[in-house]
Structures are given as structure tokens and as C-alpha cells.
Amino acid sequence: MPKQHTVAPFSVFSLGAFFLSQLVFPVHAAALMGFEDSAMLMTEIGRYNQEWMLNYSPALGQAIGVEQMRMSGKGEHATTITGINYTGLIKRWNLPSAQANIWFNGSVGEAKGQYDGFAYTPSVQFDMESTRLYFLAKARMIRAPGMNYDTAAVQSGFSFYEAGFDETQPWFVIEAKTMRNNDPGLQVTPALRLINKNYFLEFGVTNPWQGEGFAPRLNAMFVF
Amino acid sequence: MKKLLITLMLTVMAPAAFAVTTLKAEVNGMVCAFCAKGIEKKLKALPEGQAAFVDLKSRVVAFQLKDGQTLTDETFNKVIQDAGYSVTKVERVSQTVAEIQAQLAKSGKEGGK
């Protein structure tokens, strides 16, 4: 059993508080599902984590799909979790020029690789966004027998300018994320995000930002 | 005299027959095009529609009806609400969607302009 190492949650909360303190009003979009009767494809390709999910939303606030995620801890072989995923909108606040959401998301499935067996990944996400500012906080359990890759993350960002509905809007976003048994324990990823009505693309680089540890990361979402 | 009466009747009726009706809503919660795409897609799927327009900055959703078509405010509201947003005000205006767009662009309220 590899030695577990964790980053104190305090550092994540401190970063979150710092980002919040820098914002007049927190901001933009990380919808975990499309609109009613739509399908959404999401993917993350990075050095530390690869993941894709395809879900279908039969009704507002509900989506079901399939998810596959692959990750490896410090000094470990990779583990792949394949499962059925559910996303639920717990609460939404629609404000005049902003929106806030609380989401539940989770998969149940099978882990294979370094760890094998029944896997589950429940998570809770809170996000607030306007057309110019964005904040997100997320906690996720990623468990299988003998495996604990629990994560906590905060993201914050701003758009360079307000865009029309048919235009592409560029954002600068920075994420701080901890994952148990991963190296580095605190992953910081500054990223450029492009949002269009048809796609959501984000390209960032996770620390360390040079040498052998150079770790580019791509996130993409498409809704059909 | 008969021709005069017909001409008068046509003159009176013509503006009504070709009047533009656009439903215009003020919407809360629209902050990103990727998330609000559902509104446009659902409105464009309605057979009564001539054109649809979503603007994030002014928080406006406009839906121009085809000539002779009708749509209740409730149906219009439901499309927006089912996409996850809140309608705070709906009005019927005689402007086309293009005219509303131009007006917003002129007043500097349309996003990206």
C-alpha cells in the first residue's frame, strides 16, 4: 500500500478565501449538463488525470451518462474507473446578472489497474458566475477498495471582455486542486478558457511549469 | 364608390395583417452563451417562430412570430424556464428581432458591441 500524502484542507480554503476576497462579484460557467433533451460530452486530458463523460439530460436539472476516468497516485500504476454517472442540480439562484448553482455529481462503477473493485465518486460543486467573473468550489470522493483519490478544488477567473451570444468569449481562469496520494499534492493550473455557444475549451498548464514535470491540461465540453 | 370602399378597407386592414409581433422577455441568470444555448435551440424549434435572439448583456430574449401565428406568454416563458432561467418581464412589441438587435447595439447594451 503506497504511503498516503495529503495537503491540509486549510490551504485550499485559504486560497478560496483569497480568490473570493479579490472579486467584487463572483462569476461564469461550469454547467455540468446541457439543457432539457440535450447531450453533453466533457473531457479532461492532463498529465495527472484523464477523464471523459457523456451524459443526457431528460429534464432540467437531471442528467445521466457514462464516465471513464484514469489517474495514478504517487509511485503507482494507473487506475481506470468506468461507471454510470448521475448529475443533479440541487439548487439554482438566477440573479439579474449572475447565476449560482449547487450540483451533485457522482459515478458508480468498476476500478481496474493499481486498484480493483467497486468504485464510487460522489461530489458536490458550488459555482457562481456573471458575464465577467467566475468562482467554483468542488469536493469529490474518488474511492475504490484500498484507493483514495479524494479531491478538493477551487477555481476563479475573469473574462477579458463581454461577448455577444454568437461570439467567443475568452477567460483567464486559475485552479487550485488537491488530490490525495497524488504528486504534486497541490496542483495549480492557470488556464485560458474559450466559451462559445457550441463549445467550452480550456487549455492550462499545471505546476511545476517547467522541466520534466511540465503538465499541460485540456478541458473541453460540447453540447448537442 | 364600391372601389373606393374596398380601397379604404384594404388600407385600414393592411397594417394589422402585416403587423410584426415579437415576444420580448427580460431574463435573470443568463451569464454564458454555452449555458443559454438551450433557449435559442428550443425557441427556434417552435413552428410559430420567424426569428429568435438572445443577448446576455441586456438579459433579453426575443422571439419574433411568423405572420398570422400566435404564441401565449406562458408557452414562451416555459421555454425559458425549462432551460433553467427566470423570466422577470414579458412584453409584446411590434419590432422585428433585427430591429431589437439594432436598437441594443445602438444603445451599447448588446454584448460584444
What average pLDDT do the residues of chain B reach? 83
What is the H/E order of chain B?
HEHEEHEH
Proportion of residues in extended strands of chain B? 15-25%
Strand content of chain A: over 45%
Kindly report the spatial arrangement of strands forming the biggest sheet of chain B: 2-3-1-4
Order of helices and strands of chain A: HEEEEEEEEEEEEEEE
* Quaternary structure type: heterodimer
Task: Bin the helical content of chain A.
Answer: under 10%
- Most extensive contact: A-B, 38 and 31 residues
Number of beta strands of chain B: 4
How would you sum up the major sheet of chain A?
12 strands, antiparallel, barrel
Give the uncertain stretches of chain B in residue-range form: none
What is the overall silhouette of chain B?
globular
Distance separating the two termini of chain B: 54 Å
Average pLDDT confidence of chain A is 83
Compute the CA-based radius of gyration of chain B: 17 Å
Q: Your description of this structure?
A:
The complex is a heterodimer of chains A (224) and B (113). In chain A, 6% of the residues lie in helices and 60% in strands. Chain A has 1 helix and 15 strands; from the N terminus they run αβββββββββββββββ. Chain A is globular, with a radius of gyration of 17 Å. Chain B starts with a helix and ends in a 6-residue tail after the last helix. Chain B contains 4 helices and 4 strands; from the N terminus they run αβαββαβα. Chain B is an alpha+beta fold and 113 residues long. Chain B has helices at residues 2-17, 33-45, 73-82, 97-107, and strands at 22-28, 49-55, 60-65, 86-93. Chain B is globular. The longest helix of chain B has 16 residues, at 2-17. At the A-B interface, β4 of A face α2 and β2 of B.
